[in-house]
Design goal:
Layout: H1 3-6, E1 10-12, H2 24-34, E2 39-43, E3 48-51, H3 52-68, E4 76-80, H4 85-96, E5 100-103, H5 110-120, E6 122-128, E7 130-131, E8 134-135, H6 137-148, E9 157-162, E10 172-173, H7 174-178, H8 186-193, E11 201-206, E12 216-220, H9 221-235, E13 242-244, H10 252-264, E14 268-270, H11 278-287, E15 292-295, H12 297-310, E16 319-322, H13 329-339, E17 343-349, E18 356-361, E19 380-385, E20 398-404, E21 410-411, H14 415-421, E22 422-424, E23 430-440, E24 446-451, E25 456-458, E26 461-463, H15 465-472, E27 478-488, E28 492-501, H16 510-521, E29 529-532, H17 552-569, E30 575-576, E31 579-581
Parallel strand pairs: 2-14, 4-5, 4-6, 5-11, 6-9, 9-10, 13-14, 13-15, 15-16, 16-17, 28-29
Antiparallel strand pairs: 1-19, 2-3, 7-8, 11-12, 12-21, 17-18, 19-20, 20-23, 22-23, 23-24, 25-26, 27-28, 29-31, 30-31
Helix pairs in contact: 2-3, 2-4, 3-4, 9-10, 11-12, 12-13
Organism: Aspergillus parasiticus
Domain AMP-binding enzyme C-terminal: 467-533
InterPro entries: AMP-bd_C, AMP-bd_C_sf, AMP-binding_CS, AMP-dep_synth/lig_dom, ANL_N_sf
């Protein structure tokens, strides 16, 4: 690489291992032949344990039932359920025959479910009477009325993967649905699945929507298989591994990082409970002798807290992956100590890239600094650009863009957002504009400095929340933080910090926090407002998405309400309802 190119913020991933080009159905057939008696999926709460051969046969049965009910390639099949073996069966069976799975967020309200089913035109919906502790009875009643009326013209049938209560009698059970599978011969199934191509869309994935309405990313068989293969390769997965996956299956992480990366290498995947339960995760890691454990920071924070409460014996896990949100250096240290990770990786990615672009060994991370992404995945490319689209020199911040085998086809029925996100360069390469700000050092190592939309503009100065959060999270009295911008009449915005205290540690005053921050960041980045979770009108916990990300828009809205209330109530600094005006802004 020439000097002028190597000085630019541009990275090319390796071309090895060879890019995989097959469908999900072909993957399952292949693995059933290679590992027929090896366990593939384990769902302890259901007592379900399938070998690769058993899983493949079961999925073939579900595929034939789908065909018998009129499902064709390109049809949309909705799933709205907690983690269960039926979820895996429906996903693998639908994609096997070229249908597109629409995986609804478990937290969706009834109105959101109706909107998603209407927009995507789902012909079938697989759901349950409960998702964890959440009772779906009222939601099912509305869905039944919509099915019988004309609000969801494409929806033909609702099938219950799990039945419980009187409401179940109004819907077809999963086992009853499978009864028609015998009407479809194996030859018909083989003929249909042979027509499915790697570049066909296999799933609609909803972006997390932490700062707005979610978009629908269209991902192909090639997208998810290639990414799953690269993830498993980096984790050194094999048929000897048993991976514990607390992620929800509706999320790209549960689907690709969990299910598909394990299946690609003949490993077993354990889903401990229908919804996240830290006790269940710890129990299954020990009982199943898991060699892998994945999660986002909020998942691991909860696991560590429960581990301390239960006074569990030390756990030894070979590998795992953490990503999805900023990762405090202190958290990585605690995880290594509690779970004995030999090779924990820190990852960067997004739904639209299927999802992972960078995976780096946590043991190689510098101490007490932001996470550095040192290793780009094979068949992946990264660049950092300025507002004109030009690649910036290394050391200069800009927007991170990703290209390669994992990049989505686009957003479903949203050409405007697709054009904003996907741009083709003069050489014909399609780049996903992530919306993340990043900087690349002289070695090609990448640091994510925050979401571009999250940047706080105080006066004419850009302030980066991730930078402040990284410092705050180093304080022994702070277990987690969220920094947002709140409105200011003359400055435009000023900095507000929400802090979650560390159990057993005395809480410092706001002045002490500010003084401590100023030592490393300077006065200009110190928060004007400090909020402690659980004080006054401040909630006890951060609101998070089901994928574990803090809902920053909610925190910013809360900050503006609290600051407005404070300003109305007093003209002087001090603490009111848990709010501290920590510095004077002029």
């Amino acid at each position: 690489m020439s000097d002028n190119i190597s000085s630019l913020s541009l990275l090319h991933g390796s071309s090895e291992p060879t890019l995989k080009s097959y469908t999900i159905g072909q993957l399952l057939n292949q693995q059933a032949a290679h590992f027929p008696t090896k366990e593939a999926v384990i769902f302890p709460t259901e007592g379900a344990r399938y070998t690769y051969q058993e899983l493949n046969l079961r999925v073939q049965t579900v595929s034939r039932a789908l065909i018998a009910h009129g499902v064709k390639a390109g049809d949309r099949i909705g799933v709205f359920c907690g983690n269960c073996v039926g979820y895996v069966e429906v996903f693998l069976a639908a994609t096997r025959i070229g249908a597109i799975t629409v995986l609804l967020n478990n937290a969706y309200s009834t109105t959101e479910c109706l909107n998603v089913l209407r927009i995507t035109g789902c012909s079938l919906l697989f759901t349950a009477t409960h998702i964890g502790q959440r009772d779906l009875t009222s939601c099912l009643r509305v869905l039944k009325a919509s099915l019988d009326g004309d609000k969801l013209p494409a929806l033909k049938q609702i099938i219950l993967l799990k039945t419980d209560g009187d409401i179940s009698k109004q819907f077809q059970s999963f086992e009853s649905f499978l009864g028609q599978s015998s009407t479809i011969p194996d030859s018909t199934l083989r003929e249909i699945e042979q027509k499915v191509q790697p570049d066909q869309t296999c799933t609609f994935q909803f972006t997390s929507g932490t700062t707005g309405a979610p978009k629908i990313a269209m991902l192909t068989h090639r997208n998810v298989i290639s990414n799953a293969h690269s993830i498993g390769h980096r984790l050194l997965l094999s048929e000897k591994d048993v991976v514990c996956c607390p992620y929800p299956l509706f999320h790209i992480s549960g689907l690709v990082i969990g299910l598909l990366s394990s299946l690609t290498y003949g490993a077993a995947i354990v889903y401990p409970s229908p919804t996240f339960d830290p006790s269940a995760v710890l129990h299954e890691v020990v009982r199943e002798k898991c060699t892998g454990l994945h999660g986002v920071p909020t998942i691991f924070i909860a696991l560590l807290e429960r581990h301390r409460q239960l006074k569990t014996s030390p756990i030894h896990v070979r590998t795992g992956l953490i990503g999805g949100a900023p990762i405090p250096a202190a958290l990585l240290k605690e995880m290594h100590k509690a779970f004995g990770f030999e090779d924990l990786t820190v990852a960067y990615g997004m739904t639209e890239t299927s999802p992972i672009s960078f995976m780096s060994r946590s043991a190689e991370q510098p101490n007490d600094v932001v996470v550095v992404h040192t290793d780009i995945l094979p068949h992946t490319f990264a660049k950092i650009i300025d507002s004109t689209g030009s690649i910036v020199p290394r050391g200069i911040r800009g927007e991170l863009c990703i290209a390669g085998s994992g990049v989505q086809k686009g957003y479903y029925q949203n050409p405007e957002k697709t054009c904003e996100a996907l741009k083709t360069d003069p050489s014909g390469v399609v780049w996903m504009h992530t919306g993340d700000e990043a900087v690349m050092d002289t070695h090609g190592h990448c640091v994510i400095t925050g979401r571009i939309k999250d940047i706080i503009i105080r006066g004419a100065e850009n302030i980066y929340p991730a930078e402040i959060e990284e410092e705050l999270n180093k304080h022994r009295a702070i277990s987690q933080s969220c920094v947002v911008g709140v409105k200011h009449e003359t400055l435009g915005e000023e900095v507000a910090a929400f802090l979650q205290g560390t159990p057993g540690q005395p809480r410092p005053s706001s002045a002490e926090i500010i003084e401590w921050l100023q030592m490393s960041l300077g006065a200009q980045k110190a928060p004007a407002w400090v909020f402690w979770l659980g004080d006054g009108d401040v909630p006890v916990v951060f609101p998070i998405t089901d994928s574990g990300k803090i809902k920053r828009n909610e925190m910013a809205n809360l900050g503006n309400r609290l600051v407005g209330k404070y300003r109305e109530g007093t003209k002087h600094g001090g603490e009111v309802n848990g709010v501290s005006n920590s510095v004077t802004c002029t």
